[in-house]
Amino acid sequence: MHLRVACLAFALLMVSPMFGPAVAAEIAPLSTFSDCAHCPPMVVLPAGNYRMGESAGEAALIGRQEPSLPQHEVAIGYPFAIGMYEVTVEEVAAYVAETGATPGGACMIRLAETGKQALKYAGTLHPDSGKASDSPYAVFISDGSFTQPGLPVGPKQPAVCLSRREMSAYLDWLSGKTGRSYRFATEAEWEYAYRAGTDTIAFWGDDFRKTCDFANFGDRKSGYQAGMAASCSEKIHPLWTADVGSYKPNHGGSTTWPAMCRKWSRTAFTTIMPARRPMGRPGRSRTACSSWRAAGTMS
């Protein structure tokens, strides 16, 4: 079963590398741009260094037995641009309208346990649903798409229920349309952007009571009590994902994508990141949406 995932789902982050001082000088760090009317907005990040991974203190703060990744110094030796938000339904719709692509297929849905959306979903239950899930609240549908991923979505919400192959085709289309090189962010680039030059558990600090101002979590009023990650209550109460840009940005004021949905990255996740390969190991993609990584662009 070739699955696409929705709610705790795969959405898109893009990197458009801008190598060379002449190109880098054209756009100042933390400035934003969009390459076409329906292209996702991008923010420019400078070259820089940071400590990648989770410290023992961070692991203890969130109750983890061991750090998920040994911390090590990573150098990003080039400026690049990354998507300010998750790629939206309307942005993927522009690609579909222009190319005639027909993305869609099997999707996973994480059902809410309580509230008006409790245990509800749209679509045809996949015959293998329930056989390969690690959650009693996860179901699989066989006829999902980015416009109908099993739960209601609007044009400004993250595009989910997309396979890696479908997202790669979208990036190829963006590259051809704009003349730039759009691709998935690497693990190291993603965390560099998320951490925003901070060394706290999240870019807003170590206080989980502030989480609901900055990220879409299972909170005290959400329907996802089995996965409650924060004891605060959001002022925004989406049924699952919210419109992009709904939450406070990071210190640079440029990105607002903490914990909205899982993301693809260009490199594989590894529990050991040797110094000789600080940018990560190429190969299988990983998904990432851990609360301790919730940071944004460099400030």
Summarize the structure.
With 299 residues, this protein is of the alpha+beta class.
Notes on the structure:
By secondary structure, the protein is α+β, with helices and mostly antiparallel strands. The protein folds into 2 domains: 7-89 and 175-293, no CATH class; 93-159, no CATH class. The chain contains 6 helices and 14 strands. It has helices spanning 21-26, 56-61, 89-99, 164-178, 187-195, 211-214; strands at residues 3-6, 10-11, 15-17, 32-33, 42-45, 48-52, 72-76, 80-83, 105-110, 138-144, 262-264, 267-268, 281-282, 287-288. The strands form 5 sheets. A 4-stranded antiparallel sheet has the order 3-8-5-4, with no helix packed on it. It has a 3-stranded mixed sheet with strand order 1-9-10, with no helix packed on it. A hairpin with an 8-residue loop joins β4 and β5 (42-45). The longest helix is centred in the middle third of the chain and has 15 residues, at 164-178. The chain starts with a strand and ends in an 11-residue tail after the last strand. 43% of the residues are buried.
Overall structural domain count: 2
The best one-word shape is: globular
Task: Supply Rg.
Answer: 19 Å
Portion of residues in beta strands equals 15-25%
In spatial order, strands of the major sheet run 3-8-5-4
The number of helical segments is: 6
| First-to-last CA distance | 42 Å
Q: How would you sum up the major sheet?
A: 4 strands, antiparallel
